């Protein structure tokens, strides 16, 4: 059964108001009737951006102030600064025991728990920026302190911005990060490359962009809604001796497929390195 947000107002505090927090908050706001959102960040300009999304959002430069009394605390700062952010929050965290939801790449639940004083419920998740338009994909992992209700709460919050998928093995989140966390950037790069190529074929920039982006959207929707595999859908575009075949031959000669395998491996490896460098 799909978990629903409870009728009770749930207070969700974000620490960090950067790119990913903004994507999640904008996406979540349409369901804000059941969510009270608070955000902290040292940069008042970042907080002003958040406030422009909705005057009902409470903002502060003081992390303690936003987590005090919160049901859920979303950790949305860079992995490299998490330790220095969490250690000063230890006393409040131990007293109030909110559910912590970390979106930081790599950083293991055990490290987070050590920095927060131990034995706290922590959900690690890996969302992505299409959350901004409620088309996100999030992988989730819960430690053993997380109750059934908290698991459901975390899932219901992330489901306001897209699909969710649970993993019982924490290490799998490194692969999720490589695939869907970083994934939007790969597709944007392909769009950039196709746009530039279209312009070099003589199309106007605005025509090139519209054709490329609509084609990406159409291909994604078709792959999502069809019961056929992407490989079958690709074959249906590729006429023997035709234009698609000419293009795909070039991409294969350039090593596109093994290059993707190497790229995702590098992202997964970087996620593991971030974990090792921050214990
Ligand atoms: N961007 C993405 O697509 C995704 C990111 N993530 C994860 O989300 C997290 C945030 O990434 P992203 O949003 O891209 O990074 P950003 O740098 O855009 O955002 C981080 C924010 O945290 C602020 N910050 C720094 N120190 C503190 C502090 N002590 N207390 C409160 N806030 C602080 C930063 O302020 P300042 O700039 O002034 O330092 C910045 O505004 C990372 O851990 C990343 O791994 C996960 C999935 C996807
Ligand atoms: O690049 C990064 O490290 C973050 C995590 C996934 C997407 N952005």
From TrEMBL:
Pfam families reported in the protein's UniProt record: F420_oxidored, P5CR_dimer
Main location: cytoplasm
Residues where NADPH binds: 63
Entry keyword annotation includes Secreted: no
GO BP term (any one): L-proline biosynthetic process
Localisation: Cytoplasm
PROSITE patterns recorded: P5CR
Substrates-to-products reaction catalysed: L-proline + NAD(+) = (S)-1-pyrroline-5-carboxylate + NADH + 2 H(+); L-proline + NADP(+) = (S)-1-pyrroline-5-carboxylate + NADPH + 2 H(+)
Domain Pyrroline-5-carboxylate reductase dimerisation: 170-274
Enzyme class of the recorded protein, top EC level: oxidoreductase
Annotated NADP(+) binding sites: 15-20, 76-79
Pathway membership: Amino-acid biosynthesis; L-proline biosynthesis; L-proline from L-glutamate 5-semialdehyde: step 1/1
Record keyword DNA-binding present: no
Parts of the chain that traverse the membrane: none
EC number from the UniProt entry: 1.5.1.2
Keywords associated with the record: Amino-acid biosynthesis, Cytoplasm, NADP, Oxidoreductase, Proline biosynthesis
Alphabetized SUPFAM superfamilies for the sequence: 6-phosphogluconate dehydrogenase C-terminal domain-like, NAD(P)-binding Rossmann-fold domains
Pyrroline-5-carboxylate reductase catalytic N-terminal domain residues: 11-106
A Gene Ontology molecular function term of the record: pyrroline-5-carboxylate reductase activity
InterPro entries in UniProt: 6-PGluconate_DH-like_C_sf, NAD(P)-bd_dom_sf, P5C_Rdtase_cat_N, P5CR-like_CS, P5CR_dimer, Pyrroline-COOH_reductase
GO cellular component: cytoplasm
Function of the protein: Catalyzes the reduction of 1-pyrroline-5-carboxylate (PCA) to L-proline.
Stated family: Belongs to the pyrroline-5-carboxylate reductase family.
UniProt name for this protein: Pyrroline-5-carboxylate reductase
Source species: Thiothrix eikelboomii
